[in-house]
Write a structure and sequence with these properties.
The protein is α/β, with parallel strands linked by helices. The chain has helices at residues 13-23, 35-42, 62-71, 89-97, 110-139, 144-147, 156-166, 171-178, 182-196; strands spanning 5-9, 28-32, 50-53, 80-84, 102-105. The longest helix has 30 residues, at 110-139.
């Protein structure tokens, strides 16, 4: 699997170096000492998969910066985690209401930060997959009458799985997306094929 890209925006040089040392073994890390530097990076074609953002910065605070990031093209869905020394509940509430994915206070525990990052990268990836599925469903004619016709009635869950098969997802991808075991999905896919009298899943596609 390709390494994910993380952008860190913070005016604290020591924090930048510390975070980079922790994250570099797992991710591609880009450091920005100002919001302006961070925005310059976000204008490039290859966007980061996640942003760590400080709040107290001289040029612009993290709340204003998040609003600016959300206006940047193709950056609206990038998860942003505040990494800040502001531990007041009001600041955390404000940050989350503005759309931050999470709020981590300094000094942070390396293992906790890594787990928070991993969690939000996984959630972001699932959101992207769901969006792709919806886009695919919009462009693929899926005949529900055919799916539920006599002699080949699918259960509600089989129908969900059949739709995902039509979008081109593998059994492994479907299992991960639905949070079910691979063997269960494999058995259900086989059952769907039997109901249709087909031997290959590609035959489900229009």
């Amino acid at each position: 699997m390709d390494k994910k890209k993380i952008l860190i925006i913070d005016d604290d040089k020591m924090l930048l170096n510390q975070a980079a040392a922790i994250l570099t073994p797992e991710y591609y890390v880009t450091l920005a000492k100002t919001v302006s530097q961070g925005m310059e990076f976000l204008q490039r074609p290859h966007k980061p998969d996640l942003i760590l953002l400080d709040i107290m910065m001289p040029e612009m605070d993290g709340f204003e910066a998040l609003a600016l990031i959300r206006k940047q093209m193709d950056c609206a869905e990038i998860p942003v985690i505040y990494l800040t020394s502001m531990d007041a509940p009001q600041a955390e509430v404000r940050g989350l209401k503005l759309g931050a994915a999470d709020y981590v206070t300094k000094p942070f525990v390396a293992e906790v930060l890594l787990l928070r990052i991993e969690k939000h990268l996984v959630l972001s990836e699932k959101d992207k997959q769901l969006h792709q599925i919806r886009q695919s469903n919009a462009s693929i004619e899926f005949d529900l009458d055919k799916l539920t016709s006599a002699g080949r009635i699918l259960t509600e869950q089989e129908l969900v799985i059949a739709k995902l098969i039509v979008t081109g997802m593998s059994n492994h991808q479907i299992a991960e997306h639905l949070n079910l075991s691979y063997q269960y999905i494999k058995n259900k896919a086989h059952c769907i094929n039997e109901k249709y009298g087909i031997s290959r899943r590609e035959a489900l596609r229009p």
